[in-house]
Specification:
heterodimer, A: alpha+beta, four-stranded mixed sheet, B: alpha+beta, seven-stranded antiparallel sheet, 7 strands
């Protein structure tokens, strides 16, 4: 008891320190002593299930000093709001401030707590509630006042991080003791500091809270990349989501020579923290603008639930802006005729009543720096909607509709996935620790395209034009999960149309017409079709599509490289060589063509040329995972082990999870006599490698769900088989009865 | 006899485990509950006066001042009806609370010296009553009572989801 009173007294002294700026040494000592006492007290009842020296496992978060930190050491957001009103206003409505308290998160994490134990939730809360983790609050007999829960990731969580671990995610940061100022020698002053001191020394405030890494994608990787370690699932390492890797492999990183298109360098912050004019006073503003602390992205559920109308409106605007997705109703084929009529709009054709029509719709992830949809896509609903109407507006065919009970048409083409358990059951409620396999994953990676086929029949009495519309719709979250959270009596959550394209098909003649300025040029439309075919393993069709590209753009080196790439995947190496040689004639230093040429040279035994080409790629793209990996393999095959080791080590710096790096380094280290390092790499390879038994779990699931099993087949057709449910038109966001008229929080 | 002794020890071990589990409120921890009442959980002025499967009652007593936080949770067959019955306690003074459970309402109680929240998460209907005995409790003016009752409501609903 005496000790507790002493702790309180010393904590009180700390608060007093906020009114008088103490010397750094004194402040540091005053911080250290109560921290130690606090940590000792927490430790006495803390569940050290994963070891005394690993208090935050299964998460990856670390803290300087390796002791628990008092939650009060983190100045709260209202303290910061005094000078940063704009930032506070935005943050309060943003996902980061609501990272813990929302029902959407709690429903899932509570299941983990109830079934396995609260200590396992350190895995999730390392990112969702790091203060609770670092304060030692996630234990059965917790003595931590959780009043900070409602602030989630507060200002001083991000701005107290001192360094980053590898880009493994799961909270891969090292937290410092929060300080809003440094002294004249650069030493951090813990705790709150009077505002006038900060204003007198704003440079020292910046030094304490702003670090260059805050503006890097690697900072975002600390939480926007996740895995499920064996300490969580009692199984093995399972990759969860890889938004950072997806960005790194996209055109926006300029680190990957193998992207289909090129683009300007853009970080996560470049899209999600765009500068905008301030509406409230903020000392952090520059020239009247401030980097957005709304982190606009796809989550409409949180602002809808909390009544953050401004955030909701801006989120919907964001989703509809930026030319993120392109929808192209590219081609049709009439039943009994193999000829593809394409690209629609650019070629004439005729249609008759009673024709059966196959429609080829290409969905391009054009300008998203990651997949559609990223991260926990088992909880989301991103899907294609396809509507065919006759001249009177009567529906002829509709795929991807919302049923009266709010559920999505089971036969919709969905850009989501279906993780399954070892019993082949769908992992509902995001019980990630039970994931053993993924039955299908129809996401569209950055820069890539997917082809979705629809078949419908034109009625025999049709006379006027047929209108065909294809859309990408998004709902955060899927209806069945919302039902699990609230029961079925919740309002319809917002459905957002991200992109859409309509074409009119006349009964009779359809002449070619001028291109719609919002459409991709024809060469790119063919290219996207080729990319789709390639990803669906339709190699003949892919080569034909890419051949159309080079007919329209004979100067386009990538068109030839795409033919080369397709032939490599098809194992037609001599055909690949011809195409790649042509690409290199047009663009001699083209890293993408050089990379694929090197793969062909390896096949033909031209090792020197192979290594020379890969070195040129690495020179241009030192952070290319693929080039580093292949160069490492080339050196290895040459028995040049030092050079091979260097490449695999660099690859591991780029991607700490790369399997080829683990595997090859384990062998190379053993050959070099580095037994400990070899054993470490071997163990990492063993836990991270694919479980060959897992596909059987997927097959069990797909057998039990024939209505969606076709989604797992790369090539599949959606048809107008009659459905017995009447469709319901997607609605604009609206408050339901349960939520109307409440106080906005 | 040996079996009896063994059975006794097993019973005692079971009892102690059960007692330990029962000493924790499922919807809010003591540190947070007593933090709301403005006191450390280890203070001699803090006590848990009732703790079972449907009620957690935390009290702070300092001389003439008594502050109390009472939480009740029940599973209702007809949650909407049960919620509306509770909501009727607030009458016209009820203020709908956004983003607490499926639905929630808050109103004053104890002649303005307290706040009540009625809410539900799916079929769990819960009530929160935060009161102070002091007419002008300097640490619990009305706005603080409202803020703290909201905080507790968020904790409880969060744990019920």
């Amino acid at each position: 008891m005496r000790r507790t009173i002493r702790t309180l007294a010393m904590t009180g002294m700390l608060v007093l320190a906020g009114t008088t700026l103490l010397s750094t040494t004194g402040a540091q000592q005053d911080q250290d002593t109560p921290r130690k006492e606090y940590s000792d007290k927490i430790s006495s009842s803390y569940n050290f299930r994963f070891g005394k020296d690993r208090p935050f496992i299964p998460g990856s978060a670390k803290v300087e000093g390796d002791e628990f930190v008092q939650p009060g050491a983190f100045p709260n957001a209202k303290y910061c709001a005094h000078c940063h009103q704009e930032a506070y206003h935005q943050w309060r409505q943003a996902l980061h401030s609501n990272s813990f308290r929302t029902p959407f998160y709690r429903t899932s994490v509570n299941i983990l707590i109830r079934t396995k134990g609260i200590e396992f939730s350190r895995h999730c809360d390392s990112c969702h509630n790091p203060i609770a983790v670092l304060a030692g609050g996630l234990t059965q007999d917790s003595h931590v006042d959780r009043k900070f829960d409602s602030d989630g990731l507060t200002c001083m969580t991000c701005h107290s991080i001192q360094s980053l671990q590898s880009t493994n995610g799961n909270g891969g940061f090292v937290m410092g003791i929060p300080a809003v100022m440094v002294d004249e020698k650069g030493n951090r002053i813990p705790g709150e500091v009077p505002y006038d001191e900060i204003l007198k020394h704003s440079d020292r405030h910046s030094e304490a809270v702003m670090h260059d890494f805050l503006r890097t994608p690697e900072f975002c990787a600390a939480c926007h990349k996740a895995n499920l370690p064996d300490t969580l699932n009692d199984y093995k390492f399972v990759r969860a989501f890889t938004t950072y890797d997806e960005w790194q492999n996209s055109k926006f990183s300029q680190r990957n020579p193998l992207t289909f298109y090129s683009g300007d360098f853009t970080t996560c912050q470049g899209c999600h923290m765009k500068r905008a004019a301030i509406t409230l006073p903020d000392y952090g503003a520059k020239n009247g603008t401030f980097a957005s602390h709304r982190w606009l992205a796809g989550n409409t559920a949180v602002p809808f639930y909390y009544g953050f109308d401004e955030q909701l409106e801006k989120t919907i605007q964001f989703l509809r802006s930026g030319n993120f997705m392109n929808v192209d109703i590219f081609a049709i084929k009439k039943a009994g005729d193999d000829k593809m009529i394409a690209p629609l709009g650019s070629v004439p054709y005729e249609l008759k009543a009673n024709d059966s029509v196959e429609t080829y719709v290409v969905f391009q992830n054009k300008n998203i720096g990651h997949s559609l949809i990223p991260e926990v896509r088992d909880l989301y609903e991103a899907y294609a909607e396809f509507i065919v109407k006759d001249s009177a507006g009567k529906e002829i065919y509709h795929s991807g509709f919302i049923k009266p009970d709010g559920m999505l048409d089971e036969r919709a083409h969905s850009f989501t996935n279906r993780p399954v358990t070892e019993k082949g059951e769908f992992v509902d409620n995001h019980k990630v620790w039970t994931i053993r396999s993924v039955a299908y994953d129809n996401t569209v990676q950055a820069g890539r395209s997917t082809l979705v086929r629809y078949q419908f029949h034109i009625p025999a009495n049709a006379k006027g034009p047929i209108t065909v519309t294809a859309k990408v719709n998004y709902r955060h979250l899927r209806q069945s999960y919302l039902n699990n959270i609230f029961g079925k009596d919740h309002p319809l959550y917002p459905l957002v149309e991200i992109a859409s394209r309509t074409r009119v098909l006349n009964i009779g003649k359809n002449p070619a017409g001028p291109a719609d300025p919002s459409d991709n040029p024809d060469w790119m439309r063919w290219n996207n079709l080729g990319i789709s075919y390639l990803d669906q393993l339709q190699y003949v069709d892919a080569v034909q599509a890419f051949t159309e590209v080079i007919k329209l753009r004979p100067d386009y080196a990538d068109g030839y490289t795409n033919i080369g790439l397709t032939n490599i995947q098809w194992e037609k190496y001599s055909s690949a060589k011809g195409a790649l040689d042509k690409a290199l004639t047009l663009s001699p230093d083209n890293a993408r063509a050089l990379y694929y040429s090197a793969l062909v040279e390896r096949r033909t035994g031209h090792t020197e040329a192979e290594i020379a080409d890969l070195k040129k790629v690495v020179d241009q793209y030192p952070q290319s995972r693929d080039a580093r990996r292949e160069l490492g393999i080339s050196y290895y095959q040459q028995h040049n082990y030092d050079a091979a080791m260097e490449q695999f080590q660099k690859l591991q710096q780029i991607d700490p999870d790369d399997l080829a790096a683990h595997y090859n380094l384990s062998i190379l280290y053993r050959r070099m006599g580095l037994k400990d390092k070899a054993a470490e790499q071997q163990a990492l390879f063993v836990t991270k490698k694919f479980d060959p038994g897992s596909p059987t779990y997927s097959l069990t699931f797909l057998r039990q769900h024939p209505e969606i099993s076709t989604e797992s087949v790369p090539w599949h057709m959606h048809t107008d088989n009659p459905h017995d449910q009447k469709p319901m038109t997607p609605m604009a966001p609206q408050a339901g009865s349960a939520y109307s008229g409440g106080t906005y929080r | 006899m040996r079996h009896l002794r063994l059975a006794f020890f097993v019973f005692v071990a079971f009892l102690s485990a059960t007692c330990h589990a029962d000493s924790l409120c499922p919807w809010i921890n003591k540190a947070t509950a007593f933090g709301v009442l403005g006191v450390s959980e280890e203070s001699p002025m803090a006590s848990v006066s009732e703790l079972n499967a449907t009620v957690c009652n935390f009290t702070y007593r300092d001389g003439n001042i008594m502050r109390e936080l009472r939480i009740t949770v029940e599973q209702a067959k007809d949650p909407e009806q049960a919620f509306n019955a509770y909501k009727a306690h607030c009458g016209k003074d009820g203020n709908s609370l956004r983003a607490i459970g499926n639905e929630a309402v808050m109103c004053a109680t104890n002649k303005g010296q307290g706040e009540q929240v009625f809410s539900r998460v799916r079929d769990n209907v819960f009530t929160i009553t935060l009161t102070t005995s002091a007419g002008n409790d300097p640490t619990m003016p009305r706005d603080v009572l409202i803020e703290k009752a909201g905080l507790v409501a968020e904790q409880v609903s969060g744990n019920l989801f």
